[in-house]
Amino acid sequence: MPAKNSIIFGLPRVFAVLIAVTLPTRSQYLLVPTSSGRLTYIYRGEVPESWASSDHARTAMRANKSRDTTPELAIRRFLHAAGLRYRVNARPIPQLRRTADVVFTRRRVAVFIDGCFWHGCPEHHRLPTANSEYWMAKVQRNSARDKDTDAKLRDAGWVVLRYWAHEDPQIVADEIRQTVLAACQIRN
Ligand SMILES: [Zn+2]
Q1: Ion ligand 1: residue ranges with CB closer than 5 A
Q2: DSSP letters along 75-105, please?
Q3: Which residues does residue 160 pair with via DSSP β-bridges, in sequence order?
Q4: pTM for this one?
Q5: Interval 169-184: pLDDT, tens
Q6: Long-range pairs for 137-146 at CB < 8 Å and ≥24 separation?
Q7: Domains in the chain: ranges and CATH
Q8: CA 127 to ligand 1 center in whole angstroms
Q9: Integer Cα distance of 172 and 176 in angstroms
Q10: CA 154–ligand 1 middle distance (angstroms)
């Protein structure tokens, strides 16, 4: 009898990771275990690789970065359907080494869709228990860089729009469309 229990509870952590990763409970989220054994939700495509404890788990996590389900792609689909044309993952200013997610070059509108984990969304960001100082520093660096990017682009006459990945893609796309159209009226 005790042997049976120990088999169940003695499952190597890699299996727990694989089970959690291959059975996402909600379409936009993955349920992943922290190294302390707790579970946490994170957005697809935002899986810190150090959470995966083996090559197999890392492969499974990478496979879950399904591009078709990212909020960013949903937003781009709405924009395209609205007749807007834009560049994707492009530098608004070629000399400035900063890449925006959606760029309207002629209207000078740059859009950033920030991942909740990497950019420290106040609603969804949870520091992993393991290496929390490392992750905190990383997220703080990202936020500082975001602010710096916004300032540099605005100084150069760009309109900067920044959204969280958790925001409703339809609402975000509508706001982007209105901003682009307004920018169009001012400049034409
Ligand atoms: Zn969020």
Answers
A1: 116, 121, 123-124, 164, 166
A2: HHHHHHHTT---EEEE-SSTTS---EEEEET
A3: 110
A4: 0.64
A5: 999 999 999 999 999 7
A6: 142/118, 143/119, 146/112, 146/114, 146/119
A7: 2-65 (no CATH), 70-187 (3.40.960.10)
A8: 13
A9: 6
A10: 24
